[in-house]
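Troubleshooting entry. Yesterday's outputs looked truncated, so today I'm pasting the complete records for two proteins to confirm everything comes through intact. If either block looks cut off, that's the bug. Protein one:
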Amino acid sequence: MHNLLEKVYQTNSLTKVEIIYLLENITPEDREILYSHALKTKQKYYGNKVFLRGLIEFSNICRQDCLYCGIRASNAKVERYRLTPGEILGCCDIGYDLGYRTFVLQSGEDLWYTAEILGALIQEIKKRYPEVAITLSIGERRVETYQSLFASGADRFLMRHETASKDLYEKLHPTMHFEDRQACLSTLKDIGYQVGAGFMVGLPGQTFADLAEDLRYLSEISPDMIGIGPFIPHSETPLGTEKGGTLEDTLVMVALARLLIPGSLIPATTALGTLNPQGRELALKAGANVLMPIITPTSVRKQYALYENKICGDDKPEDCRYCIERRIQAAGFEMDLGRGDSWQFSS
């Protein structure tokens, strides 16, 4: 195992077979070595910086029916909401005053927000705040829509590939197609977006081979951003009684992603903070370097429940901002309020 840990640290590469062996045999001591290697690799590319993004969850309406997701189309118990462009701009004003220079506009797949509506919103944000970066996380759209939004000024696009296993993907996403997801990511990259992919750890039916394939796929597409979080069951979904993913397994995947795609931006996800009060700090020490404090209005924030018991539901935006700053400093890192572009994009 020591040889494998040294290999991935020195060469930023492992075969699929080697990844599977590592996942099957890793010990607590091995994990600590892995996290240390990932932290040193992150520092080589980004120093001690942790970048902040203001997250605006602007609609929980979704046309898709993913088996794990609390806002899936067939969950009739969700109180649905949709922020107006004016309300989204208000969130940006608050976020800008708090120092954020990246806004993440995230929603379910809500087609009320057409290319025209979103394009006008993006243009207005850029007009008010020319130096900010805008990240979209709105799911699968037509190629023309992606092109139009990029032309309007969107900089980045987050779209987790969810799983690189076709069988597992299609079991979990009855309204979607595996090839479409990967085609969207390829298209976004071709258009010129900084692109984010990623996956969940601990999904029902997921194997070590699936996780190894996730890392192999990420190595192949070399995304600017990689979102990795644990599967947390939601009681109003078909997977509500399944066992969730663990903090430890997720941290291993975060660390391996840092080592295999060293120039990427990797968030310490809110889901990790939900599993463990120190989950986000542990992720920062295992190679993550982004935090996404929420600036969604508190009046609707709890309705954006992809999973249950999500933290920070009642916190005002300023509370999140200063809590996160304290957490970053206490963990031994420094907050960076710049745009925080990815290393490969900047270099």
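Protein two, checking that the full record survives here as well:
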Amino acid sequence: MSTDRRVGVWLVGGRGSVATTALTGAAAVAAGLTEPTGMVTMRPPFTEAGMPELGDLVFGGHDVVETPLALRAAKLVDDGVLPHGLPNALGAAIEAAESEQRPGITGHEARTEPRAALGRIVSDLSSFKTRNDLQRLVVVNVSSTEAPVEPHPAHADPALLMDALDRGLAVLPPSALYALAAIEVGAAFVDFTPSVGARLPAIEALAEAHEVPLAGSDGKTGETFMKSVLAPALGTRNLKVRSWAGYNILGGGDGAALADPERAQSKLDSKGKLLEDILGYPVEAPIRIEDVKDMGEWKTAWDHVVFEGFMGVRMKLQFTWEGCDSTLAAPLLLDLIRLLALALERGERGTLSSLAFFFKDPAGSTEHALHTQYDMLERWVLQRVVA
């Protein structure tokens, strides 16, 4: 394996279920132990673009929990997320990723010592690149959802933002500090959560200035994925959607995090934006999220849609989505890592709106219809292949 093809992957929330599933899955595909099912970039025409192979990815990460990856993987086997025997077969890859885990930044550190916290992240990322002789690095936030950020004048100007951090005048959550650190070391940054991450004008401007790509926000894995297919279908038939109610129950770390109303608001904001953008008119669309600990790693969503047909006759559509969020998220995460590595190789900078396909609330784009997003993605990936 040539070192210039290797790509560093730094996962914020590196010992979580999504991160563990992704790195185990990458090793399993690379070893020929499983198929890359669910990975868009592993099917034609994307295979022509020269993205890094999954075996070229070198994993590390930050996490505030100390549960070793091997134990997390074993728990995921018990929960039916990973196949029996797979973590044991991939013990060397899991141990290599475990050796690159570092203590994460807490919310308290971000509030009270932002410059020190930022410096520690930069140091860890730089050391990871040097230690593994990596030319490209992709930082991905898969940590717990944060509460929305209160607007501050410094959020709009890079110089003001850095000065405010130095003087303790602006508070940034950990996700934004990770975005800043990624930009400082020349890494791509992806926010797979609805946290603020890089979505502040000052941080986006810094990414442009430092010539690094950004992507986000909030991976589109289940219920919203279905909305992005069904809402355009109703719209193209000229059927008027009157209401679209969603009820979600989930467990695990996500369920516990979203039991906090402030943190849940970030998720609700992210999930609730697409209907009006797709249909072109406001829709009554309440969404509820409930933490049910017994669900573990699994999630169920029930949607109730009322739409109006010819001569005002009202009809209903209901669907239930049941799935394992980590299993749905992991292949998308690996797709994004490969795509951002490609963006780094091409010298792309700033927010990549063409990656809207992967997100509930796509940065840089108001396009939510899945088929249109797929066309955008394909054009972006193949633009230089065709040229």
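Both blocks look complete. Sanity check on protein two: The longest helix spans residues 325-346.
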